[in-house]
# Entry
Amino acid sequence: MFAVTGTTGQVGGAVARALLAAKLMVRAVVRDDAKGAPWAAHGCDIAIAEVTDVAAMTAAFSGVDGVFILMPSNFDPEPGFPDSVRIDAAVHAALTAAKPRKVVCLSTIGAQATQPNLLNRLGLMEQTLGTLPMPVAFLRAGWFMENSKWDIAPARDTGVISSFLQPLDKPVPMVATTDVGAVAAEMLQENWTGRKVVELEGPRRITPNEIAVSFSKALERPIRVETVPRDGWENLFRAQGMKHPTPRMRMLDGFNDGWIEFEDPGDTRKGQTEFEAVLRQLV
# Structure
């Protein structure tokens, strides 16, 4: 059996579905019975646990062959990432006590970057969980193709999508969440020792200009892309309710300036899903 966190989201759900398709038993770790009901209907064992509840997480992770860890997102973290530090410590304690045979954690491209930015959260996770006594692997995935869902409404309404990724002809490593889930499920079935890193992107890198072309095809109307000027990011993000926009801004800088990249640790993989297929589904 494999314990999977984040099953109510895109990646965790994809991991669980891939394991079920391989005829493997899955324990879905959820926050309440209502979120677990759909997975129970698919034959999953259900464990109720909050990510900071060490006792409940220990029970959820006990007696399994492997655990998939997906940390909660926080795009507006406080300085020093105190929420991440607290969660990382709780998950480490639960895994240490539960003693699963192996652990696979969703990380990110650029987790190794030393420049301050939003993705440092997952770099901290790698540092903490990298000391676990069982084999642990970090799956560093590229920019999610599904992030483009936020552009569908403005594209339909105005014919324009706005891009924080710039310049518009710069290829960006992206990947579909279904491919992330499939590779994570594969990794849970593999054997290794110690700590390892796997890096994953899609079949090819995509420019914002190419995203606009794909939108034009999917919506059957001309769509153009415009850059969001860098000097307006902070005011825009604060107007959207963010209190600490700098980490997010610096993450975008990292993609645009090239210092958020894969580390090339030796185990690199490619997803099979093209951006056009993801966008058609989103539309």
Remarks:
- The chain has one domain: 2-282.
- The CA atoms of residues 27 and 45 lie 4 Å apart.
